[in-house]
Amino acid sequence: MHPLAHPLVSRRAEALRGAVTAPGDKSISHRALMFGGLAIGETAIHGLLEGEDVLNTAKAMRAYGAAVRRDEDGVWRVSGVGVGGLAEPEDMLDLGNSGTGARLLMGLAAGHPITSFFTGDASLRRRPMARVMKPLGDMGARFVSREGGRLPLAVTGARHPLPLDYTLPVASAQVKSAILLAGLTAPGETIVVEPEPTRDHSERMLRHFGATVRVEDRADGTRAVTLTGQPELAAATVRVPGDPSSAAFPAVAALLVPGSEVRIANVGANPLRFGLFETLLEMGADIALENRREEAGEPVVDLLVRAGGLKGVVVPPRRAPSMIDEYPILAMAAACAEGPTVMEGLAELRVKESDRLGAVARGLAACGVEVEEGPDRLVVHGKGRPPLGGAMIAANLDHRIAMAFAVLGMVSEKPVSIDDGEPIATSFPGFVPMMNRLGADIAEEPA
Ligand code: S3P
């Protein structure tokens, strides 16, 4: 535990009641700042997530020469520099905890003839960057990094970036997006082929800003995304939907705490982000999707969630990219469900903000839940009743591990403690007061 750690204790809750709004989508917020920073004119962003990850991206975009401000009406306004117009940052860029911030900005930097230095917190400095260095290197950028492609690293972008035709070795929207961002300054077509479709916020937003992006689903199940290089991006208005990855926490809490009924407004329902809710419905969850609409090219719904018994299911590996950040909270639901829940194709979970597969397996076992952990699979044997709890969970600088176990504490027989709730602010500032307003009993204890 570091000296500024902020421990949490989550105790068994009474029925949750009320209505909440999910905070802005993290993925879309990062992209809105980046595309706004590249566009000509003033982009207005409504509902930007004001979490630390996104605020670090805002700072980085200022360092690259964009004017980024938050007005009193809560709207963020970005005046861009135009594609190819980024200035060289005067100092190191610190992306904090954010893999998305770091990898996407590396793509942006790789297509400009400037040198940028990237670093981050202890979690981000452990994460693999070679997955973006390789394709961006093929486009003409040069990198110097720590051993194993770890931060801190320096990138000198290409003066004349080459368009690329690249097949992703892993399903990663971050790698796809980094290549597309670098492809903006390359002539001709940059093509990214994904083994399985991953979140398509970059594609949707590029189009929203006026770029030409073609998407082709191929017969072999892969998806090819083609960007026409050197577009002129025009400022646009972006309305950021609520983050389904954040809505997941109050939603699962409401499913698990008996007698609960919670409404969650403004949840992004992009099908490439909605795998958790699909899975929960298969488990027998009572979730009504209401008021379907579209905002700035993204589908949005309101959720009405009522508590009820869940059954274990087998989650198909092909669904993993559409719920990759939701396995920790799904595992908490599985721990209370009746029968085993089998989750496969999870290798990527080991290289997130922490090794989430290991953290979930260890934490659940410490709370008295029977689990089987494989290199890329997890089986949680739920018994249809609340787990024992009573453990201290190491958050390891991982917001989603902290929030998932805080939810488990709400139904466990004994309180669940989290050694540090501080990382929650990276994606969900206000998580603890919001959950407590619904009826949770999460206390911030002195370190
Ligand atoms: C993200 C992509 C995913 C996800 C992350 C956000 C994005 O990462 O885990 O939280 O915004 O593109 P990978 O691309 O590494 O799977």
Helix-residue proportion: 25-40%
* CATH architect. name of the largest domain: Alpha-beta prism
Shape: globular
CATH class of the largest domain: Alpha Beta
End-to-end separation in angstroms reads 9 Å
> Sheet bearing the most strands, described?
4 strands, mixed
Structural class: alpha/beta
Q: Report the average pLDDT across residues.
A: 97
Rg from alpha-carbon coordinates = 21 Å
Work out the count of structural domains.
Answer: 2
SS strand fraction:
25-35%
* Number of helices, counting only DSSP H or I runs of 4 residues or more: 12
Number of strands: 24
Sheet with the most strands: spatial strand order: 22-23-1-24
Q: Give the CATH H-level superfamily of the largest domain.
A: Enolpyruvate transferase domain
User: Which ligands are bound?
Assistant: shikimate-3-phosphate
What is the CATH T-level topology of the largest domain? UDP-n-acetylglucosamine1-carboxyvinyl-transferase, Chain
